[in-house]
Amino acid sequence: MGLKIGDIVSRKSYGSDILFKVVDIKYEKGKKIVVLKGICYRLEADAPETDLIVQPDSYVREYNARVNRAINEKLKSLNESLMREKTKKKFFRDAAKENNENFPRPGKVLHVDGDSDYLDTCMEEYRKLGMDAVGVYVKEKEQPLKIYNLLKEHKPDILVLTGHDGVIKSEKGYSDITNYRNSKYFVEAVREARRFDGNLDSLVIFAGACQSMFKKIIEAGANFASSPYRVLIHALDPVMVCEKIAFTSINQVISPQDVISKTITGVKGIGGIETRGKYRDGFPREPYNIK
After folding, report:
1. Quick one: how far is CA 169 from the chain centroid?
2. Contact 275, 107 (CB under 8 A)
3. Nearest 5°: phi and psi at 103?
4. In angstroms, rounded to a whole number, what is the distance separating the alpha carbons of residues 209 and 237?
5. pTM for this one?
6. Is 99 exposed, middle or buried, given 0-12, 13-18 or 19+ CB atoms closer than 10 A?
7. Residue 157: how many CA atoms within 13 Å on its side-chain side?
8. What are 141-162's pLDDT values in tens digits?
9. Strand (E) positions, 129-195?
């Protein structure tokens, strides 16, 4: 077939339902195995070369358009909701005191991602949402080794640990963490983050990717994680969780149902626990236009 890294392919055995990028090609027991990462979903998989079909650019564009139509409608709704929230927060505290306005201090996000393309996509969405976010590309297996120092450096209110994951086909099923491609690294990274800050309200953590071992990630100390029903999650789901937390008042505890309702994938893909918001009002707004 002449497959090469960077090709966009589908799997015949799955009815070509998801498109992947070829990220590695290796040999196991004399067979060529192709390592794949979803182009719209945070799924990692592998397949024999004979199961793959290289997709033409025209179909890739059609696929992306089809997936993104539904996503854009959801994002439009979320953005409109966010603008209403921000508008409500911009009011005069006391007209008698020279009409000084409040200034916003939403929660700061540290987004650690095992996929550099998805990281760029997420950072662009944070910018659109007006969020204070720092993005760092770290492969999933390296995240437990690097997260403590990254937290010391950036001191975020909200931490995202994500990338790609997936359940490996075997008799072990969903109950064995070794049957997941990267869940053990997300669990270890969450534990390291909790070694830095053990307070669930001080440091809010989202961790996981497609089909991740939800229960173990939550038990490790995450506030939100994927994937309760072992379904695929969208690349922007972590951003949607962060948006809700970052712009909810520090005085309000948010139910997991409320947070999940703002995600693209919904309850089958994202779950969590009650968590306090990270938004603070400041006063007064200074009159100088300082960037």
Report:
1. 24
2. no
3. -120, 145
4. 9
5. 0.84
6. exposed
7. 23
8. 999 999 999 999 999 999 999 9
9. 133-137, 158-162
